[in-house]
Design goal:
Distance between the termini: 96 Å
Order of helices and strands: HHEHEEHE
Number of strands: 4
Length: 154
């Protein structure tokens, strides 16, 4: 005895669609990602400032101009002050200028800054950090006042 029931395809004349594979290969290989220098500068600046013993970033002159610029209404605090980067296709190199607090070990602070910056940049960007050069431009003494002028606005 034969089964006389028909499948839905036979009734409608429509064949089910076969899944089609679009594109080729791993999605990660289908395009290019570029990361601007400013992105890496911000990541590095924030990571360096997180280290205990780092008082400020940049030279005295750049910090003074930055303090004035920060006071302008609508202006944001510059997290890239004291950071310069070179970004390539897969690698980056960074130069940082820092001011350390008096009494801390400069070598230990520099080592911690280097580790923190490398970890943050590599984790967030996927770029290989080939070098982090650190220049200590000043030591903040306890009795010194900050160069940033007090705001007259209340």
């Amino acid at each position: 005895m034969t089964d006389m029931t028909q499948s839905p395809e036979a009734e409608t004349g429509v064949q089910p669609r076969k899944p089609t594979k679009r594109g080729g290969g791993d999605p990660a290989t289908r395009g290019r990602t570029t990361i601007a220098d400013g992105v890496v500068e911000k990541i590095a600046g924030l990571a360096a400032r997180d280290v205990v013993g780092v008082h400020a970033m940049g030279s005295g002159l750049s910090r003074t101009f930055g303090a004035v610029r920060d006071r302008v209404p609508g202006g944001a605090k510059s997290v890239t002050r004291g950071v310069k980067v070179e970004v390539g296709e897969v690698q980056t190199a960074l130069d940082l200028e820092i001011v350390v607090d008096y009494g801390v070990s400069i070598n230990e602070v520099a080592h911690a800054v280097r580790e923190n910056v490398i970890a943050a940049v590599e984790r967030m960007t996927g770029l290989e950090v080939v070098e982090v050069n650190i220049a200590v431009s000043d030591v903040k003494l306890p009795e010194e006042e900050d160069e940033e002028p007090e705001s007259r606005l209340q």
